[in-house]
TrEMBL record:
<dbReference type="GO" id="GO:0046474">
    <property type="term" value="P:glycerophospholipid biosynthetic process"/>
</dbReference>
<keyword id="KW-0963">Cytoplasm</keyword>
<feature type="binding site">
    <location>
        <begin position="197"/>
        <end position="198"/>
    </location>
    <ligand>
        <name>sn-glycerol 1-phosphate</name>
    </ligand>
</feature>
<feature type="binding site">
    <location>
        <begin position="219"/>
        <end position="220"/>
    </location>
    <ligand>
        <name>sn-glycerol 1-phosphate</name>
    </ligand>
</feature>
<feature type="binding site">
    <location>
        <position position="47"/>
    </location>
    <ligand>
        <name>Mg(2+)</name>
    </ligand>
</feature>
<keyword id="KW-0444">Lipid biosynthesis</keyword>
<dbReference type="GO" id="GO:0047294">
    <property type="term" value="F:phosphoglycerol geranylgeranyltransferase activity"/>
</dbReference>
<dbReference type="InterPro" id="IPR008205">
    <property type="entry name" value="GGGP_HepGP_synthase"/>
</dbReference>
<dbReference type="InterPro" id="IPR038597">
    <property type="entry name" value="GGGP/HepGP_synthase_sf"/>
</dbReference>
<comment type="pathway">
    <text>Membrane lipid metabolism; glycerophospholipid metabolism.</text>
</comment>
<keyword id="KW-0594">Phospholipid biosynthesis</keyword>
<dbReference type="InterPro" id="IPR010946">
    <property type="entry name" value="GGGP_synth"/>
</dbReference>
<dbReference type="Pfam" id="PF01884">
    <property type="entry name" value="PcrB"/>
</dbReference>
<comment type="function">
    <text>Prenyltransferase that catalyzes the transfer of the geranylgeranyl moiety of geranylgeranyl diphosphate (GGPP) to the C3 hydroxyl of sn-glycerol-1-phosphate (G1P). This reaction is the first ether-bond-formation step in the biosynthesis of archaeal membrane lipids.</text>
</comment>
<dbReference type="GO" id="GO:0005737">
    <property type="term" value="C:cytoplasm"/>
</dbReference>
<keyword id="KW-0808">Transferase</keyword>
<comment type="similarity">
    <text>Belongs to the GGGP/HepGP synthase family. Group II subfamily.</text>
</comment>
Length: 246
């Protein structure tokens, strides 16, 4: 089964997906060992790309059978050993390189490596400007008190044929994307909404799923507090079940 089909099936059956993000520069292999039953897929990526990506993907695959999905910070973040790739355009970048040049430069390699592209509109929302992705990605930061702006970008993504939008507050963000922004983005666009950045507690993941997130990403947690992963997973699945009943 294709990775995207599998993800859609999890959303349908369990209400939401949990992605654990592995930053190849900072892999906690011991932590990963512990979380393998408490995640639906592993995202692999970082914004500075100084690492042996092939090695990291192979090591992750030795630890878990979960699908490995690249989360590329640039064109050189592509490994033939992964199963799929978030084929991202950073919609609210000020620099066309991140909107279309980087994705275009990576396209032939993705085809050659037979990686499954998952079309994803990547949106960097406040407080992302204060994080690595905001600096590297030259963003025009979307304010959190204007949910309509995020929603219109998500609708634009849908009109372009994207099936996923990733609402990013930035790795290690001081606070996550607010519920109103997630709710309106989902309601207006109807596409799959991934939410990440600054999610450190199960109750936060829970409320983001109830607000409308189809997928939750945590990265820093597996680096700093891997025992929390099981609790975050349970909270996401609980909210997923409740969302399905509503
Ligand atoms: C589709 C292809 C081939 C490329 C797309 C390239 C694009 C559009 C990238 C968007 C801009 C960017 C720099 C994204 C980085 C996303 C990412 C992997 C963030 C993870 O954050 P960390 O880099 O781990 O943050 P820290 O530095 O705080 O650890
Ligand atoms: O590291 P955290 O804050 O969990 O962020 C995860 C991800 O959204 C970063 O791209
Ligand atoms: Mg990181």
């Amino acid at each position: 089964m294709k990775v995207e089909e599998r993800l859609n099936r999890i959303i349908e059956e369990e209400g939401a997906i949990y992605f654990v993000l592995v930053d190849p520069e900072n892999v906690n292999y011991e932590g990963l060992e512990k979380i393998k039953d408490y995640s639906d897929a592993i995202l692999i990526g970082g914004s500075s790309g100084i690492c042996e990506l092939d090695y990291v993907v192979k090591e992750v695959k030795k630890i878990t059978k979960l699908p490995t999905i690249l989360f590329p910070g640039n064109v050189d973040n592509i490994s033939k050993y992964a199963d799929a790739i978030l084929y991202m355009s950073l919609f609210n970048s000020l620099n066309p390189y991140w909107i279309i040049t980087a994705p275009a430069l990576g396209a032939l390699k993705i085809l050659k490596y037979n990686l499954e592209p998952i079309p994803t509109a990547y949106l960097c929302i406040e407080p992302a400007k204060k994080t690595s992705v905001g600096f590297v990605g030259d963003i025009k930061e979307i304010p959190q008190n204007k949910p309509k702006i995020t929603a219109m970008y998500c609708l634009s993504a849908k009109f372009f044929g994207f099936r996923w939008a990733y609402l990013e507050a930035g790795s290690g963000a001081e606070y996550p994307i607010n519920n109103e922004t997630i709710k309106m983005a989902k309601k207006v666009s109807g596409i799959n909404i991934i939410v990440g950045g600054g999610i450190k507690k199960p109750e936060i993941a829970y409320e983001k799923v109830l607000a409308g997130a189809d997928g939750i990403v945590t990265g820093t947690l597996v680096e700093k507090d891997p025992k929390m992963i099981e609790k975050v997973y349970d909270a996401i699945k609980k909210a997923g079940r409740e969302k399905k009943w509503i």
